[in-house]
Write a structure and sequence with these properties.
97 residues; mainly beta; three-stranded antiparallel sheet
Length: 97
């Protein structure tokens, strides 16, 4: 699978099944329940143990998706979702291990 952070027009995560050469449904934040703020600019995406981590501006958090099934499922947002706070203030990039 290939995941692309696309910030053209409306930000969304494009998905491609490289093995079967197939375009899959994009992850559109407007259609996902639970995301604190809509994505304006996607800063980074990372995958670790069947989880997709997405940082975006101006959400000031990292959205986490379960990608172990066909369509990614939103799990949680890590951070405050605010410009101030003591958790994650502004996540531009990250790594998972």
């Amino acid at each position: 699978m290939l995941y692309i952070a696309n910030s053209n027009e409306k930000s969304k995560i494009l998905r491609y099944d490289l093995k079967n050469k197939k375009v899959l449904t994009a992850i559109d934040p407007e259609k996902v329940t639970g995301i604190l703020k809509q994505w304006n600019t996607l800063n980074d995406v990372s995958i670790y143990k069947s989880r997709l981590y997405v940082s975006s501006f101006p959400s000031s958090c990292v959205d986490v998706f379960d990608i172990s099934t066909g369509m990614p499922q939103f799990i949680m947002a890590l951070g405050t979702g605010q410009w101030s706070g003591d958790v994650i203030n502004c996540a531009y990039s990250f790594c998972c291990n």
